[in-house]
């Protein structure tokens, strides 16, 4: 099959079987979770409202983005149709190569978008099903509540693993060495849907969260999820559509993109050496990752009686178990399969993937240090709350800035390691080594997504417990799990940002490779920052993440203002504060939904059209500079926002866990607590909206650049039609800016 030997053929079908096994494991866990008790009638009423709001939001989001998906499917078809087929495509499909690749890219785009949507939607719905069951289990044992929450999150993790591996393997089986052409569509589809879910879910959740906290906690002195606060249901819904659906789709597209870049670069090495191992090895590594996640995630259990540190220990032990199993199997695979002398020794690909696993662990520990409730940075922010909101905000900003520096240095060391492994062989080998690092890093995807979904499931369970008035023992168990979930969410954000940068660097290598294939002279001198036009590209690329983040944060601010006004209005309803009248939860849900829908398409348009404009007007070398600028600027900004927001959040939680004593400025309702709430509300749109949304945005820009690079090189002279296209794209960009600046309108 496609020139593979018998072992490779059986191995690829084995990988397909592993993907199906991962999906079967998700179904098995689903049945376990659904067997749990849903608790009292009061608990089920709160749960029903959360479920209804989450379903309504995702259904409306789907209606908003479907026309855009249809338009881009046509664009993906044309992007392959108007350029000459690669030699590999001609070898596989002969004279029909152009047609096969065009249809393959368009269909793969729909597949990637569909799988990303499935991961987000099914994962979110399972999180909603689990939250009430976790709350009920907490009334009995700590271990039971931990197990349900983590296994429900694992369902999303295994969907991410299984569908990502299934899609990539099926495309490889059908297209062989021409697979990278179609896989670009697969990666772009997943990335675009992740951008939609990240932006929409992030705006929704933080508009409700900020509005609920400012009025409920700061002004009225209420608890986190007091049922008298009209925004609490919207807040709980937002945890699911933002952290479950959004993060799942985000890591899914990183999972796709790293395999796309590895196969593009692997194909370049196949052209040089004739060894198919370069493109088969990454798929086999991915299969190992699914197996290790299945084993390690099932081992997460808690004692009947336990505390938050026990849950964190069990989850991290699972993470390390997966890392050890994967590393050992990587070594065995490389030793027995990667023995050809052209590969330079089996230890090189093994070491590259192992570096990726180590990178994931280091970013895990680094993020926990800067955001963990018991670590020095959060302790410093907690102390700064004595000075009021201003010192609290300044302290959090400094923590975010510092964490960005260390994260960049860790990634820089990783790239240097890739250079050390394959540097003597040439640039393409080094870039392939970086791609393998990304493959190795996302071997732990099942564990990462499980850790992330664990957070909102525990948060929702805690909210249900408070709104339903459960007993103190159950509330303490849920509070402990919620605190752990807050840390695991911050950790997975750090890993997601790191994976985004590694994937983007890999795609950067794919960009250079694809350009050289069309015109070997186009980038013969590299991408020279000394060239003014390239420097202009870098400046524009560096600015895009800031513009993107500005509009995302502004959307949260505007919507949160509407939520504040609405909650204040409802607090004045006679009998509401006495608990005799229920608030209108649906109104706050509608405000958050409208705000999120307004930004979906406009921010996606900004990400899609900006690299096309730069490429067509400034040409391909400047487009390379644009990519370099957006990767560096986006990474620094994303880590800063994610870690500053996470540190503010945990500083607030440590104050809330103190004995309540406002007279001595301790605990809830103290002046320190109010300052910490202000810091947390400032950090909310940073860590849960703009920061995470930069991950898919960076990769959307890189994938669009890789797709259009052959077009830019082949059609250097734009002509009348080309300039008309440029004007239309500029108009679309201007529209996206205007749309993002306009006010929210209720529908």
Describe the protein's architecture and organization.
There is one protein chain. By secondary structure, the chain is mainly α. Helices cover 83% and strands 0% of the residues. It has 20 helices and no strands. The longest helix has 47 residues, at 472-518. The protein starts with 5 loop residues before the first helix and ends in a 6-residue tail after the last helix.
**Order of secondary-structure elements:** HHHHHHHHHHHHHHHHHHHH
What percent of residues adopt helix (DSSP H or I)? over 70%
Count of discrete alpha- or pi-helical segments spanning 4 or more residues: 20
Using the alpha-carbon principal axes, give the shape: globular
According to DSSP, the number of beta strands is 0
**Biggest sheet, in brief?**
none
Q: In the residues, how many domains can be counted?
A: 1
Radius of gyration: 25 Å
Which ranges are low-confidence, i.e. pLDDT below 50, for 5 or more consecutive residues?
Answer: none
Mean pLDDT: 87
* End-to-end CA span: 54 Å
Into which percentage range does the β-strand content fall? Answer: under 5%
| SS-based class | mainly alpha
